């Protein structure tokens, strides 16, 4: 090989080596760079890890110090808890799941004073054993083994019932043990010695108070009996004396005796009722009764007084509310009499209106009854409204001072309503009038469909004539509910001017200024119209209306019971359909005297009774004892019996039982009224149980007897004669 070739070869080899070198250098550079980056990343990672380690170290330190603080707090809380547990007077201990004591406070351990064994670690069974063996517990007649077995059994139940134990020193301890989730038991031993002593004292005091209250009730019962019996003589004789010829002065004396006697009786009754309510001795006697009738009877009693004062007494009884309910009619009557009596007493002009509405929720017979008694009387000053329900509280001002009363009526009324689970309230404006209202819930014994009337189809439009707008409103409302269109007039003259043949009936008031109801009826007939006319009158005797009767279809007593109004309207249908039919007579032609038997052993009382009914035109026979009463019942067949209860030999209850026995063969039931001087509760029950239907308390009042006669007159017997002054006597 030539030199040149060699040189060229060498050069090529050198060039190749140089290129390789370059390549390797580039690779080395790249590797260097990569290494540099890696080293940087690594050092960054180290820095961040270091920071993290620092943070964790800090946090660790915080946790450690928090733990320390928490530890201290727990220690303080535990110390305080134990301190408190040690401080309390009652015993406190913990037991573990195996019934070994974990800890107990001083009070717990003090019971076992001197017994070193009772300390943490002791078993509950051993504690029980020590209690009986060392005489720590007073188990009375109990056998120690039995007692321990009983206590052990109790301890083992999941939640042991509290138990009271008595220690040797008469300390009473109530043990309350509670088992925790893990089976631990917390045991509390409460010292209830004071409570037991107090309870014993209370029991003794209560027994004493009950004995005193019984003594008071017995005293009241006796007092009422003792006062009532002579009062029968005083009031009865005064009533009889008033019927004899007397000089004006003597009349005044007699009336004063009678009124004072009756006022005294009202006071005795009020005080008696009030004491009974206070002694929680007053019990309600629920029985079926007719609420509407009850209201109307009270209104009738007050009617003469209201008529004298020229104020109207009105009743607006919800047309679609049942009237038969179960409640204590005597007490409901007492409430109504008091509220209505007050309304009439404190009203000088205008009217007194009783409104009754009610709702029957769902299918339940329980009816919420809402009664309001509104008057246009003297009203009550706003600052006295709350005061009047208090006992012996009356509004004292110049308007009020002239009225009599005990101030107990509303206190009793409120308590009676509360006893019936109801409530009572009053709205009043001084000088304008008052409205007393109460709400009670009573079960109804009939449904709305029993009371809703079906009226004659042709009765479509009525003309209502009354000078008093409230009256017109009530009647119009009632008619409209029944589907009858109405037009109202305030006077007879106005009625005549609007009357045409579109009216199917005229409902007119009797007493109106200018043309009265009878004059209006006469004037209507003179126009040739034969539209049926119903007259509403608050006069209790029909005699004065005899003349106008020929123009009228019916005369209705005002306020009119709903059934009566429905019956009259229904009867009109018959009249319209058969115009030639006879007018409905208001009093049936009866031809025999009513037979009345009165059993009474006391001569004076027989005299009083016979004088009281002397004008009533009845056939009266007396029996002087029970046997005679039974014999007379058989021979005389009375329509009504008045029966004295306490008679020598066979008393009133026995005689009644005998009569009821006899009646089983005839199937006829004669109404029997008990006459009794007992006014306390409980008496009435015995009387009613013996088969008597009603009872009158002595002193008997003429009005009550006459009312009984009227209420129980059988068909075919002459109506007992009721002179207007006897009606007036009813209201006083
Ligand atoms: P009494 O009527 O026997 O005084 P009450 O307890 O029934 O006792 O009534 C207490 C008082 O409440 C009455 O004396 C009277 O001042 C007032 N009062 C009661 N009802 C009415 C009423 N309708 N209008 C005005 N004042 C009345």
UniProtKB/TrEMBL annotation:
<dbReference type="InterPro" id="IPR036890">
    <property type="entry name" value="HATPase_C_sf"/>
</dbReference>
<feature type="modified residue" description="4-aspartylphosphate">
    <location>
        <position position="644"/>
    </location>
</feature>
<keyword id="KW-0175">Coiled coil</keyword>
<keyword id="KW-0902">Two-component regulatory system</keyword>
<dbReference type="InterPro" id="IPR035965">
    <property type="entry name" value="PAS-like_dom_sf"/>
</dbReference>
<dbReference type="InterPro" id="IPR004358">
    <property type="entry name" value="Sig_transdc_His_kin-like_C"/>
</dbReference>
<keyword id="KW-0547">Nucleotide-binding</keyword>
<dbReference type="Pfam" id="PF00072">
    <property type="entry name" value="Response_reg"/>
</dbReference>
<feature type="domain" description="Response regulatory">
    <location>
        <begin position="461"/>
        <end position="573"/>
    </location>
</feature>
<dbReference type="InterPro" id="IPR036097">
    <property type="entry name" value="HisK_dim/P_sf"/>
</dbReference>
<protein>
    <recommendedName>
        <fullName>Sensory/regulatory protein RpfC</fullName>
        <ecNumber>2.7.13.3</ecNumber>
    </recommendedName>
</protein>
<feature type="domain" description="Histidine kinase">
    <location>
        <begin position="222"/>
        <end position="446"/>
    </location>
</feature>
<feature type="coiled-coil region">
    <location>
        <begin position="7"/>
        <end position="80"/>
    </location>
</feature>
<dbReference type="InterPro" id="IPR003661">
    <property type="entry name" value="HisK_dim/P_dom"/>
</dbReference>
<keyword id="KW-0808">Transferase</keyword>
<keyword id="KW-0418">Kinase</keyword>
<comment type="subunit">
    <text>At low DSF concentrations, interacts with RpfF.</text>
</comment>
<feature type="domain" description="Response regulatory">
    <location>
        <begin position="595"/>
        <end position="713"/>
    </location>
</feature>
<dbReference type="InterPro" id="IPR003594">
    <property type="entry name" value="HATPase_dom"/>
</dbReference>
<keyword id="KW-0067">ATP-binding</keyword>
<dbReference type="InterPro" id="IPR005467">
    <property type="entry name" value="His_kinase_dom"/>
</dbReference>
<dbReference type="Pfam" id="PF02518">
    <property type="entry name" value="HATPase_c"/>
</dbReference>
<dbReference type="InterPro" id="IPR001789">
    <property type="entry name" value="Sig_transdc_resp-reg_receiver"/>
</dbReference>
<dbReference type="InterPro" id="IPR011006">
    <property type="entry name" value="CheY-like_superfamily"/>
</dbReference>
<feature type="modified residue" description="4-aspartylphosphate">
    <location>
        <position position="509"/>
    </location>
</feature>
<dbReference type="Pfam" id="PF12860">
    <property type="entry name" value="PAS_7"/>
</dbReference>
<dbReference type="GO" id="GO:0000155">
    <property type="term" value="F:phosphorelay sensor kinase activity"/>
</dbReference>
<dbReference type="Pfam" id="PF00512">
    <property type="entry name" value="HisKA"/>
</dbReference>
<dbReference type="GO" id="GO:0005524">
    <property type="term" value="F:ATP binding"/>
</dbReference>
<keyword id="KW-0597">Phosphoprotein</keyword>
